[in-house]
Amino acid sequence: MPQSVQSLQNGHWKIELSKNIQSIFDQSKGRYGTPKIREIMKKENLLDVIPSLKRFQRLMKNLGLFAVVYKSFSLKNQTLKKKIYLIY
């Protein structure tokens, strides 16, 4: 079954988008997630049409790209440990 011209163009478009996502992700040393990569692509006008956030998430998942997420520091837990330590 031959593919349509539109599906061939769509495949080329996905490959180009994947390459752009990979390059921005590598430049950020793996720190940027889908929202920030999408925002950068909007600012730099890398593509004519910027796809939705869900499409970015699917492509990044297929590429095996996951952003580094840091846990926020909580002083509350630190003081709780000190109080327990002082009781014993």
Q: How far is the N terminus from the C terminus?
A: 75 Å
The tally of structural domains comes to 1
Mean pLDDT: 76
Helix content: 55-70%
Largest sheet: none
Radius of gyration: 21 Å
Low-confidence stretches: none
Task: Describe the fold and architecture.
The structure is a single chain. With 88 residues, the protein is an all-alpha fold. It has one domain. The chain is 66% helix and 0% strand. The protein has four helices and no strands. Helix 1 packs across helix 2 and helix 1 packs across helix 3. The longest helix has 23 residues.
Layout of secondary structure:
Blueprint: H1 5-27, H2 34-44, H3 53-63, H4 75-87
What key attributes describe this structure?
88 residues; 66% helix; mainly alpha
Sum this structure up briefly.
With 88 residues, the chain is an all-alpha fold.
